[in-house]
Design goal:
2 copies of one chain form a homodimer.
Chain A (H helix, E strand, L loop, with lengths): L11 H5 L22 H27 L5 E8 L5 H7 L9 E5 L5 H4 L5 H5 L7 E5 L8 H4 L5 H4 L2 H14 L2 E9 L2 H13 L9 H7 L2 H15 L6 E5 L3 H18 L11 H10 L1
Parallel strand pairs in A: 1-3, 1-4, 2-3, 4-5
Chain lengths: 285, 285
């Protein structure tokens, strides 16, 4: 027991938070910012920190059950194969499913298209006490939509401010937003797509469209850069997650969630009943 | 590795399925039907079988993503403290949260009351490829509703047939329903409620109403007996889970879910694209 948390020379939130200097095209996707341990050390530490995350999440859930309206929302963005699904399985999978609100956002349905683009997002927000997870999100509206010109530039270009305002409102109403942009290299993506084409147990994860999107890599890098430049705010900062090493991205996001929960300074909710009276009733029951 | 599955002398589905002789009032809630191992053996086996469950669930999810509309629905019923929440955490917590649709049914809201009692149930059914979990369910309509006379007997008495018909339709449309009724003894419930009144980290789980319900134990036993007698059908049989030993109820329900998934005879979905063509495209991309 007692894996070395001090392998983090800089706390994950500080090491990973976007700065004005963050440059998507120059990112080392194999790096492990702030963390000096290797894969083995990272995997061992994940088990231990997963238990910490789980304990904190139980407190969040307990408070939610007692009327606390605060929640945590993890927003995952990244190109295909960047490991968003793995984060859900291996990071969110560490906590009680009762307290998890998971939503993934694909191509909008006809009904969704008939509404404002934030409609389906607002419908999927976590309730008080819940840990929400968005696998893709409203940011698709300034990523895939921008890259493919699905709406005119005059339209998508207004969305950055709109998203900032939406997230401000959300943060003000008690949701701690943890935004993670996961980045793999072109080479690593090719290796992961190749695996999906070679293993029958992975075919289902492959979509020919993934290759079409891959061909638009520079346009996506530009779109991600704009997202980081325009929507990393004090109330909802972006974190850049180098994702070539899966063990690192999982450990890093676990740390970001622990940090978010710790900042809520949760305690066990006080009883809303008279303990002694209930003990007496129970003794007789 | 290699925990002894043969500690099950009778497979869990057979050992636990309700029979015409099942008598709620005579149940030994500390028993471990079909299983000869002790707590230590059961806990070790759970880890191993949890991995089997997780692998099967991934196949269900993969097929769902490929258009398969089949799903699995775990229905949990039981008195307060019978361990329903623990099943969600420790059994469902073994699988990928992406593939879990969790719903818990408390006192109906005003909106829910304005609809047929199956409305909120139908809204929460698992989609294709998902593993649904109901923490309490439509059975509350013939349990709490019956015990408290919330509607006249002429009304609730028609619901058994209505529920059977609903579940038949659900099963015919591809949902494998796994119904588990969890039973603790009066003594065990008192011990668990006492713990909730003594530990500040457990207060949030206590509700004074739990004691009121406890005082109606015989009426609930009668109501549960009627549920088992009238709604254990070929398409959706009930399983009786003795729940004084948490390790046993968790292992037992893991086995029931494994059995349900195995009966679907899932394979990895075939590719819906031309593998060689995609490999060539990827090589050039």
């Amino acid at each position: 027991m007692g894996q070395d948390v001090s392998l983090w020379t800089t706390p994950a939130p500080d090491a990973l938070r976007v700065t004005p200097e963050t440059t998507v095209a120059a990112l080392d996707t194999r790096s492990t910012p702030g963390f000096t341990g290797d894969k083995k050390a990272g995997e061992l530490l994940l088990v231990e920190r997963g238990a910490v995350l789980s304990a904190l999440q139980e407190k969040l859930y307990a408070n939610g059950r007692s009327g606390d309206t605060r929640s945590v929302l993890l927003v995952l963005q990244g190109m295909d194969t960047s490991g968003k699904g793995g984060i859900v399985r291996h990071v969110i999978g560490q906590v009680d499913p009762q307290g998890v609100d998971h939503a993934s956002f694909g191509v909008p349905t006809a009904e969704e298209k008939a509404h404002h683009y934030l409609w389906r997002i607002k419908n999927a927000l976590p309730k008080g006490g819940q840990m929400g997870v968005f696998d893709r999100s409203h940011y698709e509206e300034v990523l895939v939509v921008r890259v493919h010109n699905l709406v005119p530039a005059e339209v998508w270009s207004t969305r950055y401010d709109e998203i900032n305002a939406f997230e401000k409102e959300l943060a003000d109403s008690g949701t701690t937003i943890v935004k993670c942009a996961m980045f793999v290299s072109l080479d690593e993506q090719k290796a992961r797509l190749t695996e999906r084409l070679e293993r029958p147990d992975k075919y289902w994860k492959f979509n020919p469209n993934d290759i079409d999107e891959r061909l638009l890599w520079p346009a996506y890098q530009e779109a991600y850069q704009a997202v980081l430049d325009k929507t990393s705010t004090e109330h909802a900062p972006w974190h850049v997650i180098p994702a070539d090493r899966k063990w690192f991205s999982r450990l890093a996001i676990t740390e970001l969630l622990i940090d978010a929960l710790e900042r809520l300074q949760l305690d066990w909710p006080p009883p809303d009943f008279d303990i002694e009276h209930e003990k007496q009733r129970l003794a007789r029951a």
